[in-house]
Fold each of these.
Amino acid sequence: RKEVEQDPGPFNVPEGATVAFNCTYSNSASQSFFWYRQDCRKEPKLLMSVYSSGNEDGRFTAQLNRASQYISLLIRDSKLSDSATYLCVVGRSNYQLIWGAGTKLIIKP
Amino acid sequence: ETGVTQTPRHLVMGMTNKKSLKCEQHLGHNAMYWYKQSAKKPLELMFVYSLEERVENNSVPSRFSPECPNSSHLFLHLHTLQPEDSALYLCASSPNGQGEETQYFGPGTRLLVL
């Protein structure tokens, strides 16, 4: 079993819709959680950190469920520019981030 | 954005060549990383340096040799690579290497081994 698992997609979503992804992790001792975004042929960039209490940044909401060991990302009112691959990342210890393979999102006009 | 730069951006090399990838960060960070990203696979951490000392080496073949002369520069020396080493090589930095820190990535070097 992979340490961090994501549905690879692609998720094809009409502009303006709401879309949600989940990511599961296997190591219950994981301490930090992130969503990164990677555009085609570009480097990953931090989208948001995920806190136990959940957090929101504009149209994006991230949630952490430690009991079930998953994190989620919700995108409301999706824009064409949201098309990208979304990478779930889990911090295992100092220096070690474990990366999911990513979920590809395509927003269609 | 020029926080983390990498050169070259693209590299084609034969299996007998020797080449080096360069990474430079202008963020004043103390930790630097090399990752390999192959198509449809997760990023694989290769090496981590903290204050110029190697702190992680994730079972990477010896044909990859890192060098960190100072906290701003990181190199990856390549020799006798295999076609399966073709991938995107990403350099990243973070303030101190703590697990909760954001990592900042360079644009990557897209490597093709013939």
Note: The interface with chain B takes residues 2, 4, 8, 31-32, 34, 42-46, 49, 87, 91-102 of chain A (CB under 8 Å).
Amino acid sequence: GAVVSQHPSRVICKSGTSVKIECRSLDFQATTMFWYRQFPKQSLMLMATSNEGSKATYEQGVEKDKFLINHASLTLSTLTVTSAHPEDSSFYICSAIGLAGGGDTQYFGPGTRLTVL
Amino acid sequence: GENVEQHPSTLSVQEGDSAVIKCTYSDSASNYFPWYKQELGKRPQLIIDIRSNVGEKKDQRIAVTLNKTAKHFSLHITETQPEDSAVYFCAASTTSGTYKYIFGTGTRLKVLA
């Protein structure tokens, strides 16, 4: 149980385009979803926290107009990287919390590797 | 702000030896401490966790200890195997509000056969 999927797994795009990444909890309802960014050989950096039906809470230094988050349902959150630039190239990972695992365990998606040319 | 320090950043051990990774957190309200194993290009996998009402927890070759007073917690892997080679992350979280994790900087463990 507690499976989180993420799509796409890899995406290559041109500078200036927008990219949407989906995060789904497959077998539980996610009360909260998190979006992380991980650069090579670095730790996971939290970008934002999203709760279903409400606005996402962004971490300091993360541009909310550039990284649009929509948590449309209890099983789906999307991250849209708008006007992507090469410096946005990174590994983006979502995680979800639900009633599974005691309510505070985060289950991670497999990640999306974004390459902006 | 909240911070989690993790040491060492790299660790090489011989197969069969033990490995210890240590973390220190700053937020005294933290009460949940998971450890994740991440292989290259893959998602972090939860390997063990501990809550603040417990001082030690063990699961086969893996154990975690917590010292709330000193705000330290450690991961212990015994009888290491080559497949234990990965990057390990500690995290600290408060279970009030949004369960936000603060991750440590990671430890790259190499188990030499």
Note: The longest strand of chain B covers residues 86-93.
